[in-house]
Amino acid sequence: MPEEEQAWFPKDEVLSYEEMLRVIRVGAGLGIRKVRVTGGEPLTRPGVADFCASINEIAGIEEIGISTNGTLLSKQENGVSMAARLVKAGVRSANVSLDSLDGGTYQRSTGRDLLPKVMEGIDAAIDAGFRSIRLNCVLMKNQTEREFVPLMNYAWEKGLLLRFIELMPVSTQEVLKEDHFLATGLARQLIEQHTGPLVPLPNFKTNGPAMYYAVPGTEQKIGFIGAMTNLHFCESCNKLRLTSDGKLRPCLGSWLEFDLRSVLRSGCTDAELADFIHHVVARKPKEHDFRDNYQPNRRMIAIGG
């Protein structure tokens, strides 16, 4: 949510909802079962709840999730919150970014004074009845260390899953500098100074790369996502990312992207579209390139997280 002016794609370069739905429908025929709507901030696009409802009608799709900064979840339309509209549309899980419970720290991290709206949004999501709500905190050295206990207490009080995520050089290599980067292993050690030894939960999975631990003496679980320090991070990845401008990416941490929009708009048949998706899946790398002096070619808001 930076204050500086954002460069938006021209409207004709952005996939329509109808084009996205066609891709999802063809993908479902190939075995895709889960769809997550991301951004940027997906809730800024008009009609997103209706879009999710249309996804929910596609045969084969078993789960729809959304990733959001939370600021629009409490937005009311005819007395109904955005969160409630999403749940009615069939969205079952929400990932909400929350790096701090301190207003000043939140504003410095995000560029906006919107923490109260995020908190309202989380409450709206709880009230709406999402099956799963996960709070995502990006680990930042000399900041997150102060947030461990408050965030864990808040997540426990609200009954939510909390995950700590290592910085990744998706948009810039600057995040890997020593004065920014905080590894999940060190974060876990710092948390254990307050909780005692965390208990690994190797069989607890939530359709992603997080490694979960139980907090001793409680039923609370917390997760760690360590793309930079976990050498086995990519082993179970089965994700594809479709950008708003129609590029299909087989890996978040790779330059590889394939122009699906041109294929869609060339008058292709569903069979030809399926062949294209197969081609992209076949190019999925064994692991990301983040450790190999990766040079970003897009900002994260233009990829989808």
Automatic annotation (TrEMBL):
The protein's required cofactors = [4Fe-4S] cluster
Stretches assigned to the Radical SAM core domain: 1-197
For this UniProt record, the keywords arranged alphabetically read as follows: GTP-binding, Iron, Iron-sulfur, Metal-binding, Molybdenum cofactor biosynthesis, Nucleotide-binding, S-adenosyl-L-methionine
Q: Which Pfam families match?
A: Mob_synth_C, Radical_SAM
> Do you know which PROSITE patterns this protein is assigned to?
RADICAL_SAM (PS51918)
Q: Which Gene Ontology BP annotations are present?
A: Mo-molybdopterin cofactor biosynthetic process
Q: Key word Transport present in the record?
A: no
Q: Where is the signal peptide?
A: none
Cite the InterPro entries for this sequence.
Aldolase_TIM (IPR013785), MoaA_twitch (IPR010505), MoCo_biosynth_MoaA/MoaC (IPR050105), rSAM (IPR007197), rSAM_sf (IPR058240)
Query: Which terms in the Gene Ontology molecular function aspect does this entry carry?
Result: 4 iron, 4 sulfur cluster binding; cyclic pyranopterin monophosphate synthase activity; GTP 3',8'-cyclase activity; GTP binding; metal ion binding
Q: Which residues form a coiled coil?
A: none
Q: What name does this protein carry?
A: Cyclic pyranopterin phosphate synthase
